[in-house]
Amino acid sequence: MDQPGFDAHTHIPGTTIFDGAQAMKGYNLNKMCFSFNRAENRDAFKEDAEAYMEKFELTEAQKKAIRSSNILAMIAEGGNIYYLAKLAGIFKLSVQDVGGLQTGMTTEKFKEFLASQA
Amino acid sequence: MAKILGGITTSHIPAVGNAIQKELFDDPYWKPFFDGYPKVHEWLAANKPDYVVNIYNDHGLGFFLDRMPTFAVGAAHEYRNEDEGWGLPSLPPFPGAPELSWHIIESMVADEFDITSCQELPVDHGFVVPMQLFWPGAPNNADMPRSVPISANTVQHPIPTLKRALDFGVSLRKALESFPEDAKIVVLGTGGLSHQLDGERAGFINKEFDQYCLENIVHNPTELTKISRMELVEKAGAQGTEFLMWMMMRGALGDNVSEINRNYHIPVSNTGAGTLLLECA
Questions:
Q1: S-S: B56 plus which of A35, B166, B190, B281, CB 3.0-4.6 Å?
Q2: Which residues of chain B have pLDDT under 70?
């Protein structure tokens, strides 16, 4: 779904533009994460993650990304960070933990990196 | 007719809500951030607005990708802060102002802005944290104005342009000033400044660009409309696009404003946090 002429496709290193193509690719994954706004759905996921992912018809690549807590892979498979944040909450991950996981830093190193930009 | 008193901007980071709940106002990490608010409290206490128009961006509570409005206006009697997925304690409902909401919707659609009206709209940290920052104890604060939430899409591209955001504010100003009630209104623009939560570039903050935006939005907001959306992503970070809310607020204040208060601090959570209080002439 390449749409030349639209600035939605500028390349910015380390950044995925969540556009129509990504929104379509990640629809079921994001829909599952949206369901985690409700506590009973978070509990259902914690009880049987495989069954819960199956219910939302996630692709094998999306399931694999979740099984291995690979956030960059979740984004590549269409995940949107605002919805993924609800999944991260189930695992009690802070946004600094999530930042560290994506940049290959410990949470402490990531916090130092944030402070270094002051 | 109603009068717009001014506008206030602030970051709306979820961690701030947590810090408020734990009363970490004098904590060394939080103090430089919370120091930006006493002047806002004084100004609000002196001016006592009757209504607050809270321009924020929903983060996946009020809207999902099944139906994603570019500009949504709440038109409810009250707004509930529901669980966003983290199980945080939610607050009592915020009182709405549906008669003002429908006036805004009527006026702006007549002015050719295509609005999605929402008679039910759960509100997330983007709406709630600024209310807590400006009216301590909100919504249980005797001065708490009735509110109209306005949410713009920054979840999914294409997002509005900076020019469209500023123009939205200009049209909102016409709507508010024609509201047939002798009322005082304050407009909030929440979110930003620079931050990026996702990807290998997570943790990106851009002090220089934030300062540029803070500087220009006061007296020269039109200059900022030259920034393309992709340039905004590049310079402010993927979630720094929330600066659009500041542009929407700024448009509503008219040409002549004076700056009463400014605060900027890095980092609060992953963000360059900014606060600005502008008073209309």
A1: B190
A2: none
